[in-house]
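Handout for the seminar on molecular recognition.
Each group receives one record of this type.
Step one: identify the two inputs.
Step two: read the structure output and locate the region that could contact iron/sulfur cluster.
Step three: write two sentences on what you found, then compare them with the reference statements printed after the record.
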Amino acid sequence: MKKKNTNLTRREFIKDLFHKLLLLLLGSFVVSRFFKSAAAGYVWQIDPKKCVKCGRCATACVLTPSAVKCVHAFEICGYCNLCFGYFQPGALRLTADAENQLCPTGALQRRFVEDPFFEYTINEALCIGCGKCVKGCNLFGNGSLYLQVRHDRCKHCNECSIARVCAGRAFVRTPARKATFKNA
Ligand code: SF4
Ligand code: SF4
Ligand code: SF4
């Protein structure tokens, strides 16, 4: 009889311990979610109209490569054969050979669609946010390429180190729910 009571007490003790552990786990989950959502409450964005393509997005971010990437507004792209964001000025041939490309990392990729159209996509893993393609596209093309902070990569620094040196004062901090620029 005595042995049975000891077993019960032990079982109750384990059950109690299990409940406390569960509560502790739940508590830390809620706390971590709270801090995560608080940190994600505000985001840094680039206003593409103000960006002067100074190149600092590639060099001033706390991350390497930068959290800023080139993004493409396909709806305003001309799908041009001669893309000024893709080709070096004065490229001898309109081919994908490395010497003809403006992008230093091969991140901007060209795909034939149908005569005479080509599609341009960005491999974000290769993009360093230098803005060279953006400059070319905005000078002579439709301006469909632009730079933007990618929020899945950005550390959401309180003081963005690119914003401090941005030549166009193009960085804005905005509540995440109010983020308006495309691909934000
Ligand atoms: S030129 Fe620069 S910004 Fe454009 S895709 Fe290449 S690395 Fe990215
Ligand atoms: S907030 Fe930080 S991680 Fe994000 S773009 Fe600016 S410097 Fe880079
Ligand atoms: S630092 Fe500012 S002006 Fe320079 S490329 Fe980035 S967003 Fe554009």
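Reference statements: Residues 70, 102-103, 105, 107-108, 122, 127-133 surround iron/sulfur cluster (ligand 1) (CB under 6 Å). The chain has two domains: 1-39, 43-178.
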